[in-house]
Amino acid sequence: MKLQRKNRRALALGALAVSGALALTACGSDDTGNGNGGDASASAQAGNVKCDDAKGQLQASGSSAQKNAIDAWVAQYVAACKGVQINYNPTGSGAGITAFTQGQTAFAGSDSALKPEEIEASKKICSGGQGIDLPMVGGPIAIGFNVTGVDTLVLDAPTLAQIFDNKITNWNDEAIAKLNPDAKLPDLKIQAFHRSDESGTTDNFTKYLKAAAPDDWKYEGGKSWEAKGGQSAQGSSGLAQQVKQTAGSISYFELSYAKDGVKTVDIKTEAAEPVKATVENATAAIGAAKVVGTGSDLALELDYTPQADGAYPLVLVTYEIVCDKGNKADTLPATKSFLNYIASEDGQGLLADAGYAPMPAEIITKVRETISSLA
């Protein structure tokens, strides 16, 4: 077991080195590691992948939040299923759903469940069926910051709301200082960055602000950023890069993008101590999620104001959007095979090392059952 976990960790870290839009094929499976150790890792995992009748190209797009997880999964999958090419383009949740409802992709990744109008639009390409939400990846939305001389920063929902609504504009503001009495906060302008594209991460972040700071965040929310002021960047990777290179910056993105020295905020909740952005703390919050979708749809309702100690409140779940019925005959085998793998124990087992939270057992069990019934 120790060797297997070590191999999984080596593979996940190797896969995270992949950059740009993903277009991995079987001949690219050498990228799963360096030297014989990487090949051995891929081979060990590949033996557990069931390819069935999968073949050809599988086009998918959407959530940039799950890109690092997709990288790790595809590296494993194509090492086993050499007749399949998977192209995942991290265009953002909104663009991914649009491409799916226009019949351009076999599945989409979205950090928000389908809206009623999107379900209705999906019926045009899901012959006799509709698009459904399969929760596959969880994790914390980290608040990254770049403030010289400050290594630990505590913020609460009202303060975050005012920062991202351009109401608090300097790092030595009294509200920030009150939460951080021991920090040497500089007289420095706050550079708040938000997503320029339609994003499920934005949707979840603003849902948190609405739920936890209703007096300070008056916007409706959704995938598009509504507050005035601030600066923008494309995708989670774009926001993380801005935080890394811009003095005084702050932004929101998945924990897997908070690397290379990017520091993250501890969030003050109703619990006794501020909560750090970790996979374990996000799992504690996601475990309280409820399935609110009907039929084969597994959309979840998240709790953005948890009171339990160690429950990180700012979380998201990424769904794979797929037709329950009416999938294209030429892509259905590969779609089911790939989704079966990423929902499997091995697939979910890669997530923690890649900075994500696996789905709770009771939820992922339902996901596996639903995938087996796709037609």
UniProtKB/TrEMBL annotation:
<keyword id="KW-0732">Signal</keyword>
<dbReference type="InterPro" id="IPR005673">
    <property type="entry name" value="ABC_phos-bd_PstS"/>
</dbReference>
<feature type="domain" description="PBP">
    <location>
        <begin position="54"/>
        <end position="345"/>
    </location>
</feature>
<dbReference type="InterPro" id="IPR024370">
    <property type="entry name" value="PBP_domain"/>
</dbReference>
<keyword id="KW-0813">Transport</keyword>
<dbReference type="Pfam" id="PF12849">
    <property type="entry name" value="PBP_like_2"/>
</dbReference>
<feature type="signal peptide">
    <location>
        <begin position="1"/>
        <end position="23"/>
    </location>
</feature>
<protein>
    <recommendedName>
        <fullName>Phosphate-binding protein</fullName>
    </recommendedName>
</protein>
<dbReference type="InterPro" id="IPR050962">
    <property type="entry name" value="Phosphate-bind_PstS"/>
</dbReference>
<comment type="similarity">
    <text>Belongs to the PstS family.</text>
</comment>
<keyword id="KW-0592">Phosphate transport</keyword>
